[in-house]
Amino acid sequence: MTQTITVIRGDGIGPEIMDATLYVLDAMKLGLEYEFADAGLVALEKTGELLPAVTMDSIRKNRIALKSPLSTPVGGGFSSVNVELRKRFDLYANVRPAKSFPNTKSRFPSGVDIITVRENTEGAYSAEGQETAADGQSATSITRTTRKGSERIVRYAFDLAVKTGRKKVTVVHKANILKSTSGLFLKTAREVAALYPQIQCEEMIVDNACMQLVMRPEQFDVIVTTNLFGDIISDLCAGLIGGLGLIPGANIGNDAAIFEAVHGTAPDIAGQGKANPCALLLGASQMLDHLGMTDKALRVREAIVATLEARDSLTADLGGTGSTMDFGKAIASRV
């Protein structure tokens, strides 16, 4: 049985890390077929649109996409291609695992294994109602939190904990100050948590959560939080394990799912073969989990660990001299 996925090669270093990732997937003979589509600056140059209709149709049809980083030009239109994709397909759950890897530039070479589940469609990060006063002296933006949005993301986090055998979910909030928006999120989270007595539920104010993550990250298992807090916390978790080059992201909705590397396009090194493909490879492993190929996903992760342990063809950010494709081939040789 074959599975067709939409592949967006992206901007900057995107095509390089995508080529290395597809090389690994092809080596596993998974029965995947690729439908290539454009978005971001590449699409803008070809079609005059950041998100062409043909790309949207491809994602809608295949329901699964693997995406490299995209650039959004400064100026008019929507604020971010990534945010727009999340809105159009209602990809309400952003899932970012952060796990210690060997031989990385990290203060925590072991003991970190955290999944951040971030609400992906509302809250402050959605930038709803942005407006700057005519005199340029003030600006406003609406922060909207709904019971529906809060309930489904917290349910997703608890269901994920049950499915993956995790023991604790930490609800991160700021309800002590943001009593309406964050308060609604926390109240809803408590109601959902009561339905999962087998999972320990902990509540933590966001500023304390950030401090605790830096001091004792091993105390966290699954974190669920709102959009803006999740964006910040997931990057903090990346810093614990060696940087964004090792962090994937899954954007999950009821009708589509997009898997990605969460780092940027790194235009300063684009085309030079210096980029680390691990984040996108880990995103591809999330995709395989989503497709029910959990054993294949595990093989990808184990091959990455084995390659890091062997220091085989590592890219410069990991202390090696290998190219993007050299690193990909080294991982492929171990899957």
TrEMBL record:
Any one GO biological process: isocitrate metabolic process
Entry annotated with the keyword Ribosomal protein: no
Domain Isopropylmalate dehydrogenase-like, first and last residues per copy: 4-331
GO molecular function: isocitrate dehydrogenase (NAD+) activity; magnesium ion binding; NAD binding
EC number: 1.1.1.41
InterPro entries the record matches: IsoCit/isopropylmalate_DH_CS, IsoPropMal-DH-like_dom
Gene3D superfamilies (UniProt xref): Isopropylmalate Dehydrogenase
Keywords: Oxidoreductase
Segments forming a coiled coil: none
Family: Belongs to the isocitrate and isopropylmalate dehydrogenases family.
Protein name: Isocitrate dehydrogenase
